[in-house]
Amino acid sequence: MALDNLIFAQCILYFLAFVFGFIAVVPLSENTEDFGGKCLLFTRGMWQNENITVSKQRFIVEEWGPESSCSFITFVGIASLILSAVQAWRLLFFLCKGHDE
């Protein structure tokens, strides 16, 4: 019985890892597409006021972040999605069909 509770807890944690990985990968890949392949991570820039009343500001990019940082984060996110989905499915299978003790 205690082993079933442990497997169920692991299954829930792997499912949460899948959900949080999905939450991280989707916006990062969308931002990469929106900025024309330029990486928003580690970008350097400054805020510039368009008029004296400071009613409108815009961000001027001085240096874009390296593309490799976005590629690495996307790869790690997709790998965690795949691995957590496989582990959650495997543990759910063990929980439903039984397991060897």
From TrEMBL:
What parts of the sequence cross the membrane? 7-28, 72-95
The record's listing under InterPro entries reads:
TMEM179, TMEM179-179B
Q: Where in the cell is it found?
A: Membrane
Checking Pfam families in the record gives: Claudin_TMEM179-179B
**Annotated PANTHER family:** TRANSMEMBRANE PROTEIN 179
Similarity comment text for this entry: Belongs to the TMEM179 family.
What is this protein's record name?
A: (spotted green pufferfish) hypothetical protein
